[in-house]
Amino acid sequence: MNHQKSRLGLAVLALSLSVTPALASGQAPSLRTLASARGLLLGGAISGELFNADNPDEAATINREYNAVVAENAMKMRAIANSPDPDNYLFATADAMVASAQKNGQTVRGHTLIWHDSAPAWVYEIQEKTAMRAAMTQYITTVVKHFGNRINIWDVVNEAISDGPGNPLRNNNPFAVAGPDFIALAFRMAHAANPAARLCYNDYSVEGLNGKSNAMYALVKGLLADGVPIHGVGFQSHLDTNFSVRDSGMQANLQRFRDLGLDVQLTEVDVQMVGSGSEKEKLARQAQVYGELLSTCLAVKCSAFMMWGVSDLTSWRAGGKPLIFDGDYVKKPAYGALIKVLQTAGK
């Protein structure tokens, strides 16, 4: 298929997207249909490709298969706030994505309010505690109120824990200027701006029982003890076909967060194909990992299973062919594995 990258006006194309029709008699159920029947949010990250008229398969796949979406980049701070002036915040792309989701009956996860890797230059210029706290408060309040009840799930803080020995908080996080309680501040401000929203901490390499997931557990347990309004934890799950759900202790890890009364969500799932073997063997192993991830998610009564993209064509890890649709939007064995789990798990 020929998938060109030209784009038309976001607003015009957003309005052209239609709600996924009801299943015709005898038609196989979609992921969306099966997930919705379980009360599970299942979907993925969307980009400007949603509005690419030369690639209609993107929008068609999203609207057929996903009951939830998350902006891959359009809601990050660098995309919205190149200027500290809230009158100059850039919401057009994100608004178009939300409008499309509303039109198609999809839930939107907000991603992400505070992340060191998406901070624009002006944030790094702030070196005084009071000024940083004021800037964080202004940004979070403006963004969360802008979307209001159109977005009731937010990744408030993303990737604040380092990968270094002992897994302390990152020492390169510009928001730390606001003080050691900057994470708690972010959650309190988001809650004040939208008391109805479910607020999450999100991170990577925390899927199994390990030092980093222990650090995350201690972090969120401390936030809860201090009365901070945190409601969920996002496990990104950027993995490869060598990952073992069993050997990593993933179910026990997720369960301990559920036992704190928190929502558990897999938020950025993709599984790169690596190692030796034929393409068929790699696809089978990828399908196995996807199936085990969803089974584990359901076993702990997770509330969301989100993939980081739609097809291998536009994935940020395209070389590893990590998603459930190939570059031509054809269903891979991993798609069938998810369908099977949704049809059979717990029955």
Automatic annotation (TrEMBL):
InterPro entries: GH, GH10, GH10_dom. It catalyses: Endohydrolysis of (1->4)-beta-D-xylosidic linkages in xylans. The keyword Kinase does not apply. Its EC number is 3.2.1.8. Residues 25-341 form the GH10 domain. Residues 1-24 form the signal peptide. Pfam families: Glyco_hydro_10. It is an enzyme of class 3 (hydrolase). PROSITE patterns: GH10_2. Keywords: Carbohydrate metabolism, Glycosidase, Hydrolase, Polysaccharide degradation, Signal, Xylan degradation. Belongs to the glycosyl hydrolase 10 (cellulase F) family. This is Beta-xylanase. It comes from Deinococcus arenicola.
